[in-house]
Design goal:
The structure holds two protein chains of two kinds. By secondary structure, chain A is α/β, with parallel strands linked by helices. Chain A is about 40% helix and about 15% strand. Classes of the chains: A alpha/beta, B alpha+beta.
């Protein structure tokens, strides 16, 4: 079965893209292929002009850990861990920070998503909206080049959906640079711009919508959204 | 701490009931293994020590005529070199053999013994006795005879040539005590009277029920033997090397030499069979524990499919996922083995204090146990192997779970 046919994306740093379409049109497949979780049967993928399609499973895992941040419709937090520990899990795999610095960075990220007072709370004791905000903070844990969000607000009510969406944009707009490593701050599209793209995508019914944003330099984000009432 | 170990610890901490179930299987398996091995080896060790202490670690007995190779090549069906030997009862030149054999570093002491079977009588009771004619000072240095005395005095025996030391069960059978008179029947049909100077208990039924010690010269006269020693018994620094020394002695002295391993082969095989049987039985507990761990980890993998998928999406490799579940097994094996060894030591101590009257093959008033680090090593090794095999399959399965299927299944 062909999940993706003739999809060719050339995504530049500093751009935001939203894939919009009815259920079953291949949005998630595209994200998983781009996220190096699902190897394509044919074709190639490159990150920062480096081909990655031929890499081993271990190397792909390292790329995912280093370059990609995932946000899922269902938050997918580790239930046995606290909010802070959840954010530290990708950092532990990367292994670049000592324990205390990982904790501090996770605390700053949680603070940035408005959960600074719930560091030690087990993730299963957080509300749905809070869990998704922890998931957003976790996606940013390793300072990724790419954020892939698969219907990140699809499982939230309207209020929390608006809040999570706004948060994603606000975080990037305000800049999140906990490591202070001299790299330019990340930028993501303004709420207004993202909404403009969404509208543009909706107009196209399905397909890939691309917008340019002067704020984005080192990260691009790809969102997938199911069209309301479609499919 | 590696990320897989960290995650494994957290997974275990949040599955306390399953953890306790897995852990208890390993703890009891290891504990019982250690305890049963301590018991079976305890009885075997007691038997070995008693027989070596009474009969020596090595015995040189009958002289044989050396066999010289024929110039004619024998047929393939020809019998072996040993079968062609001609044997002559008794030791010739015992003092010279003892002088030479003392030069061997493994030899601590040696003692000549004139051995023969006699009929013993005390009052109206008769019994067959295994008479050991000994040189008291040499025999005391070579065997545990001094430690085995439960009544009387060795000095009384040494100073009185017409005295005997009698095995404890034989004394019971004849109803005699120290100071009593006992008669031994010579081959000429004449009864010789002796005073019982001491009673000895070796702890082995076959020795205690037949053994009588007399002075060698008296025994020679009583038994009417032309030679002064029918065997030489040896005390060795390393009894485990007795077979090699026996081979050397045979070649050197042209006398048959038997190690205690060869002499007690039948009994040792019996003890070994019991030990293996007990080990197999108790190993089943450890294997069952491994099966339990397999179930627990398999259920854990099934319950953590979502976590595995998210870990993979965050960059955790397949080997990391495997390691998470292997670490869980390893932690259960490590903690279970330590606790199991402690339980085993406790059980061994407890069993060693259970009063039980044993008056058969062995003489004991309580369970005989031995403390040997090898029991703990083998129990731990067995537990680790069982748990590793039990953990490997679920760990491998977890590593091979395709994350996309889980992520897609939950998000579409």
């Amino acid at each position: 079965m062909h999940a993706l046919r003739g999809v060719s994306l050339d995504l530049e740093p500093g751009t935001v893209h939203a894939v919009v379409g009815p259920s079953g049109c291949g949005k998630s497949t595209l994200l998983y292929v781009l996220g190096l979780l699902d190897p394509p049967d044919a074709g190639s993928i490159a990150i920062e002009s480096e081909p990655v399609s031929h890499l081993s499973d271990n190397e792909l895992a390292r790329k995912r850990n280093e370059f990609i941040g995932f946000i899922f419709q269902f938050h997918f937090l580790m239930e046995d861990f606290t909010a802070q520990e959840n954010i530290m899990i990708p950092m532990r795999r990367l292994g670049q920070l000592p324990e205390d610095e990982m904790g501090e960075r996770a605390a700053r990220l949680l603070d940035a998503v408005g959960l600074g007072n719930k560091l030690s709370r087990p993730s299963r004791h957080l509300s749905g909206g809070e869990q998704q905000r922890v998931a957003i903070a976790r996606a940013l844990a390793n300072d990724p080049r790419v954020i892939l969000a698969d219907e990140p607000t699809g499982n939230l009510d309207t209020k929390n959906s608006e809040r999570a969406f706004a948060l994603l944009q606000t975080l990037v707009q305000q800049g999140e640079n906990p490591r202070d490593d001299g790299r330019p701050n990340r930028r993501q599209p303004s709420s207004r711009h993202a909404r403009a793209q969404l509208l543009k995508a909706k107009t196209a019914q399905n397909g890939v919508a691309q917008g340019d944003n002067n704020f984005l330099r080192h990260v691009w984000a790809l969102f997938s959204f199911a069209l309301a009432g479609a499919g | 701490m590696t990320p897989p170990l960290y995650i494994a610890l957290r997974f275990l901490r949040h599955r306390k009931r399953a953890l306790l179930l897995s852990l208890s299987g390993v703890v009891f398996g290891v504990g019982f293994f250690v305890c049963t091995q301590a018991q079976t080896e305890g009885f075997a060790r007691h038997f070995i020590n008693s027989t070596i202490g009474s009969n020596g670690a090595l015995v040189v007995r009958s002289r044989f005529r050396p066999h010289y190779e024929s110039l004619v090549v024998p047929s393939r069906s020809a019998s072996s070199d040993t079968a062609l030997r001609a044997f002559f009862e008794g030791i010739t030149n015992a003092s010279e053999i003892m002088r030479v054999s003392r030069q061997f570093s493994n030899v601590v002491a040696c003692s000549p013994v004139l051995r023969g079977t006699v009929s013993a009588r005390a009052g109206f009771q008769n019994a067959t006795a295994d008479l050991f004619g000994i040189d008291p000072p040499l025999h005391a240095r070579t065997t545990d005879i001094l430690r085995q005395l439960i009544a009387g005095s060795y000095d009384d025996f040494r100073n009185n040539t017409s005295s005997l030391i009698v095995g404890s069960r034989l004394a019971e059978d004849l109803g005699v005590h120290t100071g009593d008179t006992m008669q031994l029947l010579s081959p000429s049909g004449e009864y010789w009277r002796f005073t019982i100077a001491a009673i000895a208990r070796a702890g082995v039924g076959s020795i205690d029920s037949t053994r009588v010690y007399s002075h060698a010269r008296i025994a020679q006269n009583l038994l009417q033997r032309p030679f002064g020693a029918s065997m030489i018994i040896y005390k060795l620094r390393d009894p485990d090397r007795a077979p090699a020394l026996a081979t050397q002695f045979e070649r050197l002295f042209q006398h048959v030499a038997n190690s205690w391993q060869e002499r007690e082969q039948a009994n040792l095989q019996l003890f070994m069979t019991l030990r293996i049987s007990a080990a197999i039985t108790v190993s089943l507990i450890i294997l069952l524990a491994g099966f339990g761990i397999f179930n627990v980890l398999t259920m854990s993998v099934l319950g953590k499919v979502k976590e595995i998928a998210i870990l993979r999406s965050m960059g955790y490799r397949r080997i990391d996922i495997s390691a998470i579940f292997l670490w869980q097994g390893a932690l259960v094996a490590a903690v279970g083995s330590v606790l199991g060894c402690l339980l085993g030591a406790l059980l061994t101590w407890g069993v060693g204090h259970i009063p039980i009257r044993i008056r058969g093959l062995l003489y004991a008033d309580h369970f005989l146990v031995t403390w040997n680090w090898r029991h703990y090593f083998w129990a731990t090794l067995l537990a680790i192997i069982a748990v590793f095999i039990a953990s490997y399959v679920p760990a491998r399965r977890a590593a091979e779970l395709p994350p996309v299927v889980t992520l897609r299944g939950s998000s579409v």
